[in-house]
Amino acid sequence: MDGTSEDKPGYNKIRFCGERAKLDGYRFFWVDTCYIDKSNAVELQRAINSMFRWYQNAVKCYVYLSDVSTRQRKASDRLSEHTWESAFRSSRWFTRGWTLQELLAPGPDSVEFFSYEGDRLGDKRTLEQQIHKITGITITALRGTPLSQFDVDDRFLWAENRQTTHEEDKAYSLFGIFDIQIPMLYGEGRDKAFKRLREEIDKPLKGLDYLPFAADAPFNSFDLQDDLTCLPNTRVDLLQEIYGWADGQDEHCIFWLNGLAGTGKSTIARTVARRYFKEERLGASFFFSRGGGDLSHAGKFFTSIAVQLANNVPSLRQYIYDAITKRKDVASQSLRDQWCQLILRPLLRLGSSSSPSSYVLIVDALDKCDKEEHIWIILQLLAEARTLKTVRLRVFLTSRPEIPIRHGFYQIPDANHQDFILHNISPSIVNHDISIFLQYSLNFIAGERSLGAGWPGEQIVKRLAYDASGLFIWAATACRFIREGKRFAAKRLDTILQGSGSAVTAPEKHLDEIYTTVLKHSITPEYTDKEKEESYCTLRYILGSIALLFSPLSIYSLRRLLRVTKEDFDQTLEDLHSVLNIPKDQNRPLRLHHPSFRDFLLNNDRCKNPNFWVDEKQAHQTLADSYMQLMSTSLKQDICGLNTPSILFLKEHLLHWLEALGWMQKVSNGIYAIASLESIAAVYECPRLSEFVHDTKRFVLYNRPAIEQAPLQTYCSALIFAPVISVVRKQFKYYVPQ
């Protein structure tokens, strides 16, 4: 050195760094401003892509603040002690784009701040409150929590007001913050640089599109938003036990809450899910539902869990994306392979520094999964959560105490699960909680209908709570029935009280009585016998179809399927809001409020009135006939009317059906239906049908991604790439595009 550099702005920083490193006993030091050859594009690219890692691995990171002096006095008080806090808060270092990674990459004890004179001001830990106020960066990020744990928009916000010399550097300086590497293209401008950065950040999210997802599975899905959670001061001891388990660290990785139908299991599950969602510790939730389409089987169970985990746990997102990239067909693999590749292995890759270190998975009504063998497999796989060491996955599971569930838990060591039998809670506690619910609901009705304060009175509430026999669904159905009476609400309450005898009967009997009362009330007494019979027939026809549908339909679609006029349909359902969730929007799904109503309708030992009992076999046949008639008149080529001229469309219904499923994003339902048909063909020994259906299943499984992403490819690439010996290809060989 010839001494001519001493007057340059960066000289003092280099001199200070060397002296301080020597004082701290280090043999080497590195300064970013002079050890990167910015004229060499390759070296510059390498340095910027590596810089975050260099800072992260540094033993010490010295921050030399040339605009902060420890010798200056407060202008307002020349006799006061020396101070630097004000200058520290306004230092240019906190406004530069590239210094964000210098602040966040090293550990909290590694970053040390020094004044212009070389005096130590403190480190990132001792100054975290001041730094937090200056930068807006959350304390946990300053303390070393992996940045992948923080929302993408929050990380962008940390850099929003920072400045760089080159406009593109505002984006390039964030490579390390988001752990990505892309080429630098100086001259592209700020907007294009940020666009490329955002596209790279969003790649894992786009990768999730390969995974089939049950949209109604999460506890807070749009169609479940009206479902209740536990009221304050109800289920107090039980919820405390559940929260204690979820927050604990013992080997009980599964909490099994089992109880009879209508005892409030799903309400408790939603309450638990809501709590941990607010605490940002809810990994995922899946609420099974018989007759709920994707919610009634395990086909989308683990893929839906994986998608939610990727969205709720940012640090998992890249690992799940890696699994999808490695095996794009993972969704069509076995449940075990889906669990291992999409959930267990990504969780195992999480480091011990991940925060929080425990997540809760909610699985409600597992008994409503349609196949017993899938229930057993799911239980066995979820129990493997105990193998996780650096992060805990606590599985809260509810179900009725059905044989498949009990058998599944027999195979799991007692040390790995904690059980609670809901219907064994003391009747006095249950009645107390039901009384609170009734009082809350009836007070609301009294306010709506101006029935006066205190209506209907403490004794009536006690009577209703007694009649509920421990079933929350009885109380909920009764309150809905009363409320739907509007100006006749008080009379409907009297109807319920008159219909409930004082004799002690099984809880299920009381539930059957309230369902019978609701159904009787839906038929006008003034009808003639002939009109009543017609009304009963229409009622059974519509309710039976709703109860048996594999996937809920909207009011409009169901009307069209059953060929019932709008007037007849609306009048039939007009007084059934207490048992049916009837949306105002006729394009939304029509659902049962509770599966126990389905059980009641289809069981003639419970539904003793022949006017309401639904013959399941006959109802299935009627539905099948309606479907066949609708498809024969509605299915056609290019069902969405795109009229793409370059594709030779086919006229056979199989391909039309697959196209329709593709547009509806319901190809998984089609695969399920084909598998069921294959089983039926095998039972009835139909070799030609079996051969065709088996090949159809292979055809759909192989081409599923194409059909889901571009349904019209059903007629094109799906056939072209089918094997020459394929039965499906032979069937439609004249329609393969030339």
Task: Explain the overall architecture.
Residues 563-642 form the TANC1/2-like winged helix domain. This is HET-domain-containing protein. Pfam families: NPHP3_N (PF24883), WHD_TANC1 (PF25521). Keywords: Repeat. It comes from Hyaloscypha variabilis (strain UAMH 11265 / GT02V1 / F). This protein is of the alpha/beta class. The protein folds into 5 domains: 11-201, no CATH class; 209-424, Rossmann fold, CATH 3.40.50.300; 427-521, no CATH class; 529-634; 653-735. The protein is 49% helix and 6% strand. It has 32 helices and 10 strands. The strands form 3 sheets. The protein has a 5-stranded parallel β-sheet. Helix 23 (529-548) crosses helix 27 (616-634). The longest helix has 23 residues, at 427-449. The N and C termini lie far apart (76 Å). Mean pLDDT is 85; it is low at 78-82 and 638-651.
What percent of residues adopt helix (DSSP H or I)? 40-55%
> Briefly, what CATH class of the largest domain?
Alpha Beta
Tell me, rounded to a whole number, the average pLDDT.
Answer: 85
Find the CATH superfamily of the largest domain: P-loop containing nucleotide triphosphate hydrolases
Number of extended strands = 10
Number of domains: 5
What Rg is obtained from the alpha carbons, in whole angstroms?
Answer: 33 Å
Strand order of the largest sheet: 5-6-7-4-8
CATH fold-level assignment of the largest domain? Rossmann fold
**Helical/strand content category:** alpha/beta
How far apart the termini lie comes to 76 Å
Q: Are there runs of 5+ residues with pLDDT below 50, and where?
A: 78-82, 638-651
**What amount of the residues lies in strands?**
5-15%
Main sheet makeup: 5 strands, parallel
Tally of separate helices? 32
Shape: globular
CATH second-level architecture of the largest domain: 3-Layer(aba) Sandwich
InterPro entries: NPHP3-like_N (IPR056884), P-loop_NTPase (IPR027417), WH_TANC1/2 (IPR058056)
Domain TANC1/2-like winged helix: 563-642
Keywords: Repeat
Protein name: HET-domain-containing protein
